[in-house]
Amino acid sequence: MCQLLGLSSSSPIRLTFNWRSFVSRGSQKVGNPDGWGVAYFEGTDALLLREPEPAAASPMVQFLTHYAPRSELVISHVRRATCGGVNLANTQPFQRVLGGHTHIFAHNGFVAPYKQANTSSWLQPIGNTDSEQLFCHLLSELEPLWSSGSVPSLEKRLDVVERFARDIMQHGAANFLYSDGVTLFAHGHRRTLPGEGVSNEPGLYVSLYQSETGSDIKVSSEGIKAEGSCSDQALIATLPLNDHNWMPLKAGEVACFEHGQRIK
Fold first, then answer.
1. Residue 255 phi/psi, 5° resolution?
2. Contact 176, 134 (CB under 8 A)
3. Is omega for the bond preceding 93 within 30 degrees of 0, making it cis?
4. Containing domain of residue 79, as a range?
5. Distance in angstroms (rounded) separating the CA atoms of residues 13 and 180
6. Phi and psi, residue 105, nearest 5°
7. Tell me, what's the pLDDT at 229?
8. Which of 25, 27, 92, 262 is deepest in the core (most CB within 10 A)?
9. CA–CA distance from 16 to each of 53, 83, 177, 191, 218 (Å)?
10. Taking the CA of residue 116 as centre, how many other CA atoms within 13 Å lie in the half-sphere pointing to its CB?
């Protein structure tokens, strides 16, 4: 099954062990060999890197292990192709610009095609995956909120994301990470297993680190490296990445994160 990884932090950090643990799942042996991608936010913009090849064998992935840009908000994905060919256009995460903000989306699962009212020309999919179609559908619902030129309230944005999540859950497995550069939204559904369909296992897990408590997310020398800074951090992943406390999201639950803290 595809794998998702999200990070929200109160200060810019660079992933080390958790990144290596995550991308190791993008291989022919372990699974998910059909591409990888990662988005590093800086303010309202994001650096997006993608390749339609196994993450575990990519020199660029190895480079990012040591030299990735520090970021307060990261979304990453390793792919097992279930819809659409193995090419760059179908490689997640996906990116669009709306309201002067870069929006990033990554999805795990399969949602059968259904009628959507995407009318804006900029919302036409580039590839042919169900995941990109879902992203375009979500942005078409969010577009009216962003037309004023200012950031809509969290309540309004969350309402749209929750309605979108309830809708697509009726059509298939719908674990996703989405961010507008302000808030990281995580929707947990159910895990998908190759050849077995949708299981009853949770689709996303969350691990929180609060700097005030003195708790250390670092696992010996292989944890999140904050490069000298002290920060609150939230990790969201398809499966736990280390031996710390990971809590599953309930099916249908949308969690919101800003600056390393869960805010809903």
1. -105, 145
2. yes
3. yes
4. 3-262
5. 19
6. -145, 135
7. 53
8. 92
9. 21, 31, 20, 25, 10
10. 25
pLDDT digits 0-9 by tens, 164-192: 999 999 988 899 999 999 999 999 998 87
What distance in Å separates the CA atoms of residue 234 and residue 75, rounded to the nearest whole number? Answer: 12
Q: Which of 187, 146, 150 is nearest to 168 (CA)?
A: 187
* Six-digit token string for 30: 């372990």
Task: Supply the mean pLDDT for the chain.
Answer: 88
CA distance 115 to 99: 25
**Backbone φ, ψ for residue 160 (5° rounding):** -65, -45
CATH label of the domain that carries residue 163: 3.60.20.10
Tokens of 140: 């078409």
**Burial per residue of 191-230, b for 16 or more beta-carbon CB atoms within 10 angstroms, e otherwise:** bbeeeeebeeebbbbbbbbebeeeeebbbeeebbbbeeee
Question: Using the 8-state DSSP alphabet, how is residue 204 labeled?
Answer: -
What is the C-alpha separation between 55 and 60, in angstroms, rounded?
A: 9
109-122 as b/e: b if 16+ CB within 10 A = bbbeeeebebeeee
Better-scored residue on pLDDT, 104 or 209: 104
In angstroms, what is the C-alpha Rg of the chain? 17
Q: What band does 211 get if pLDDT is binned at 50, 70 and 90? A: confident
Give the chain's domain count: 1
Q: What is the structure's pLDDT at 191?
A: 80
Strand order in the sheet with 247-248: 45-51, 36-42, 71-78, 3-13, 233-237, 205-209, 247-248
